[in-house]
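Hey, resending since the last one bounced:
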Amino acid sequence: MKWLCSNIYRKERGFTLVELMVVIIIIAILTGIAIPSYMVLRNRARISAAQCEMKNIAVALEMHRIDKHNYPATGISAMKSALESDYMDPVPTEDPWGQAYKYE
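The structure tokens again:
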């Protein structure tokens, strides 16, 4: 019993190398599980954001067509200038990945 009490309340402070290694391995395993899940969720969010932006642009283009009886000229700058005044502000020119939208 004396041995048990002396080991529980030992005078040395700090952690052993084995204890630190176990903690580091556990953190590495949890990180290895969490990062791929995060990447998948982030990609889904970007896809959803791009779909919403495209739907909003399509609605604004249809409203422009109904009011002016034609679509804006080809090119993202022409579309942006036509839609920003009355239909959509601001008009997104890049998708969530940073690539420019194309309007033809």
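The CA atoms of residues 45 and 96 lie 9 Å apart.

Sorry for the duplicate.
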